[in-house]
Design a protein that fits this description.
- It comes from Corynebacterium uterequi.
- Its EC number is 1.8.4.12.
- Pfam families: SelR.
- The protein has helices spanning about 5-10, 20-25, 30-35; strands at about 55-60, 65, 70, 80, 90-95, 100-105, 115-120, 130-135, 140.
- It has about 150 residues and is α+β, with helices and mostly antiparallel strands.
- The protein has a single domain, classed as Metal Binding Protein, Guanine Nucleotide Exchange Factor, Chain A (Beta Complex), CATH 2.170.150.20.
- A hairpin with a 6-residue loop joins strand 5 and strand 6.
- It is globular.
- About 30% of the residues are buried.
Length: about 150
């Protein structure tokens, strides 16, 4: 038997939100990338070239994902980071779509698709990793401003 708290946690978990609710919360383009694993076209995202100091959060649930201090210019057409804000912020899983093997990155909080991570590309970063993230998946809170958590 579940306690009241366990029942509340189950009912309010982002992973338990039905598809119909995600469609209400996200616009069509956001839904396609975040919930269907799509990719926005290169070079069009609002955060691709931004240098604003701050925190990048998941557009679907508001979880902190990346910080501007880990962002670098890879000239790939999407925002690139060499590390997530916290090792528990993202989930990695194997993606074999499009005839190749890649490592997909998901938000650990709501399991929304964010992009992919690539290793060994030779970028001069502390990790030699490139987290290639769709801008449409992110919300930037500039340094000094408080972010507001998403309601479940």
């Amino acid at each position: 038997m579940l306690t009241d708290r366990e029942r509340y946690d189950l009912l309010t978990s982002f992973s338990m939100i039905p598809d119909s609710e995600w469609r209400k919360r996200l616009n069509a383009a956001e839904y396609h990338v975040l919930r269907e694993g799509g990719t926005e076209p290169p070079g069009v995202g609002e955060y691709t070239n931004t240098t604003t100091e701050g925190v990048y959060s998941c557009r679907a649930c508001g979880a902190e994902l990346f910080r501007s201090s880990e962002k670098f210019s890879s000239h790939c057409g999407w925002p690139s980071f060499f590390s997530p804000a916290d090792s528990d912020a993202v989930i990695e899983r194997t993606d074999t779509s499009l005839g190749m093997v890649r490592t997909e990155i998901l938000c650990a909080s709501c399991h929304s698709h964010l992009g992919h991570v690539f290793a060994g590309e030779g970028y001069d970063t502390p990790t030699d990793l490139r987290y290639c993230i769709n801008s449409i998946c992110l919300t930037l809170t500039p340094a000094g401003e408080a972010s507001s958590p998403q309601e479940i």
